[in-house]
Amino acid sequence: MVKFLASSFTVLLLTIAAVKAQINPALYPKVNEVPPVNSPEVIAWLKEIDLTGAPVIELHKGAPPACPNPPIANECYWTCDGCAADDITACAAPNTWGLTFDDGPSTFTPTLLDYLKTNKLSASFFVIGSNAIQYPDTLKREVAEGHHLASHTWSHHALTTLTNEQIVAEMKWTEKAVMEATGLRLKYMRPPYGDINNRVRFVLKKLGYIPVDWTGDAFDTNDWRIPTMTEAQVIATFSKSLDTYVAGDKAKGFYCLEHDVSSLTVNVALKLLPLGIARKINFASVAGCESDAQPYQAGSTAPMPTLPSGTTPGQPTSSKGATPSAGAGGSGNGTASGPTIIDPKNKSGASSVAVSGVFAAAAAAAAAALILA
């Protein structure tokens, strides 16, 4: 019996190890850096698309880039000109908060997921590939709990500063990481810093991506400014934006800019979301807002996820019955221990791979059983 238990624990350990090792970071580019374009993978990806005909627009400089002066003709630069072309900038569902979080996954994402699950809210997570390879299980949990995954590039560099080939590398490595973790091929993306023009759009469309911006400065929560901006100031400012919205016709919803990358951004999210609930605003992911029952590209190896219980394609998750939650857990120091910490205004941080407590516990149990045998 003891030997059987030891064997069982060993199998459990190996199974958990296999799951945790499903993505080998050594097979991916360096985290937080623009991937090289001369790798076999990128060369193969470039052969799959035709980039001839891309608009010839000078690369911007800076992180984030400074606005060109004078503006470049026919660039349609959303960051500086407010020109969105056919980017998605507003939730199509009326009276709906299109719930999106950028820059994860992180060690603080599970706290946010706990809150969303309790309150039956669905969100879109625009993930950074450099973080995705470190937390594949968080991606799997997000899908399992009815959330929607989208791309935020590999390294969070401003895309108008990159060549066409570098943009392909940024997008495809992130796509590969999420595909390896979940079997789903991403379809929507958000450009870092909202930095997008017609050249970037051309490349993204060739790759099958749909850009999703946020609904202007009023719906930038400014969570990334904390602690330079106090949490109280963030809440007060965003409360005014919500009051202005609910006083209008609410014919369309809105997309916010929020982040799940640190304890500071997650903690304030748990205080901002109840503001929408109190104002009887509905919530939905990008897939729900856009009535997209196929929110991933063809070529996914996993079945197309269905919307969570209580929703149907095209209908936002109702805030009815949702209740505000207490503050989030976490260290409270605002620094994620594993993922890159990057915000819309060029905040960055170091990366490291965290060890799972579950894995460690299983290893200890297996070791103990083997000793008893």
UniProtKB/TrEMBL annotation:
What Gene Ontology terms describe where this protein resides (cellular component)? membrane
Segments crossing the lipid bilayer? 353-372
Which residue intervals define the domain NodB homology in the entry? 95-284
Alphabetically ordered keywords of this record: Hydrolase, Membrane, Metal-binding, Signal, Transmembrane, Transmembrane helix
Q: Look up the signal peptide feature and give its range.
A: 1-21
MF GO annotations: chitin deacetylase activity; metal ion binding
Q: Does the keyword Metal-binding apply?
A: yes
Compositional bias of type Low complexity: which residue ranges? 317-326
* Segments for region (Disordered): 294-343
One biological process term in Gene Ontology: carbohydrate metabolic process
Instruction: Please report the name of this protein according to its UniProt entry.
Output: Chitin deacetylase
- Give the organism the record lists: Linnemannia schmuckeri
Q: Which gene encodes it?
A: CDA2_6
